[in-house]
Design goal:
This protein is of the alpha/beta class. The chain contains 11 helices and 11 strands. It has helices spanning 3-18, 40-56, 71-78, 92-101, 137-145, 161-173, 185-193, 208-212, 260-274, 277-285, 295-315, and strands at 29-33, 60-64, 86-91, 113-122, 124-129, 152-155, 178-181, 199-203, 216-222, 249-255, 288-290. The strands form 2 sheets. Strands 2-1-3-10-4-11 form a 6-stranded mixed β-sheet, with helices on both faces. A 5-stranded mixed β-sheet has the order 7-6-8-5-9, sandwiched between helices. Helix 6 links the parallel strand 6 and strand 7. The radius of gyration is 20 Å and the shape is globular.
Length: 321
């Protein structure tokens, strides 16, 4: 048996042995996330942590490690002690896309993490700079087709999920929008405002203030039905696009080998919180959909999502780098 696995089993056994003497959690819980402070996932996770801390008697300490197409944060989490006191934010980019586009991925999405629960699906939006003349998708497509290579599309890095979405939508529209890469939505939205980029696909919650202030154009939403908060904004299907090949989700996990008792406790706390009416309203205002499940359901979902996105990557012949 590898020493790392043996160590994980020893930690887990020690946890079970002392659980009655020292109820979990007995100290703060670190949560590693691959996004900068102030972005939607950061805001939601900090709010969740503040609310759950009141019930468990210990805070969640959020540790932001953005960059590297989610690799920096996920590698740090995978290498952390599996003692139940480190959690990591898992998402479709890091868990479903990276295994198909990176040659030397420093973590294994199947073996290095213990799923706790999915948390939510994002409402994605197609955004345009107010500096471009079109105010609807049909006109924007014509505008982009007439300017091959001159429309900048903000992504989260080469071969990131957002970059592959750019390839997909270029294919659908027969356009040639160029990828311009950023660490997160907190950088993409200002780039849209200043017309450094002209278009992007990103979570709507990243731009709530800019939408309200008419500093960016929300031309369509990636959803099966219109948002009650933006009833005049059409869905992708309404503007002639097929269903998006991406499911933008965020969930929580722990390093492999973490104690089952810790996973179950955090899963139960998430289920209780996401069922709370006031927290549900908080989520609605940020355009995210509750997706809390059991650890087993989350594990199965991630496997299916990884397989599905592997098919998308192969369709566009994206080489591993």
């Amino acid at each position: 048996m590898p020493l790392s696995r043996l160590a994980a089993l020893i930690v887990s056994a020690s946890f079970v042995a002392c659980v009655h003497a020292q109820p979990y959690p007995a100290k703060p819980i670190r949560v590693i996330i691959p996004f900068p402070p102030g972005e939607g996932p950061d805001i939601i996770l900090r709010k969740a942590g503040d609310d759950i801390a009141k019930r468990i008697g210990q805070p969640w300490i959020v540790e932001n490690r953005p960059g590297g197409n989610m690799v920096i944060a996920l590698e740090a989490c995978a290498r952390s002690a599996p003692d139940g006191y480190t959690m990591c934010l898992l998402n479709s980019s890091g868990m479903s896309v990276n295994p198909h586009v990176m040659l030397k991925l420093p973590y294994d999405p199947e073996r290095d993490f213990k799923p706790i629960s999915n948390m939510y699906f994002l409402l994605g939006g197609l955004f345009a700079s107010i500096a471009v003349p079109p105010n609807n998708i049909a006109d924007f497509v014509s505008y982009a087709r007439s300017r091959p290579g001159k429309i900048n599309f903000g992504t989260l890095g080469p071969n990131s999920q957002v970059d592959i979405f750019r390839m997909w939508i270029n294919d659908q529209w027969k356009t040639e929008m160029a990828g311009i890469h950023y660490k997160g939505g907190a950088q993409i939205i200002p780039a849209l405002v200043t017309d450094e980029i002209q278009f992007s696909w990103i979570g709507v919650f990243n731009a709530l203030g800019q939408i309200k202030a008419s500093k960016v154009k929300l031309l369509a939403i990636d959803s099966r039905k219109r948002s009650p908060l933006y009833p005049n904004v059409p869905t992708l299907q309404e503007v002639g696009l097929p269903e998006s090949p991406f499911a933008a989700w965020h969930g929580l996990g722990m390093p492999a080998g973490a104690p089952d008792a810790a996973v179950r406790r955090m899963n139960a706390e998430l289920g209780s919180l996401f069922a709370d009416k006031s927290f549900a309203e908080f989520l609605l205002e940020r355009h995210v959909e509750n997706a809390v499940t059991s650890p087993e359901e989350f594990a199965a979902f991630m496997r299916r999502d990884r397989e599905r996105l592997g098919e998308v990557v192969r369709r566009y012949n994206i080489p591993k780098q």
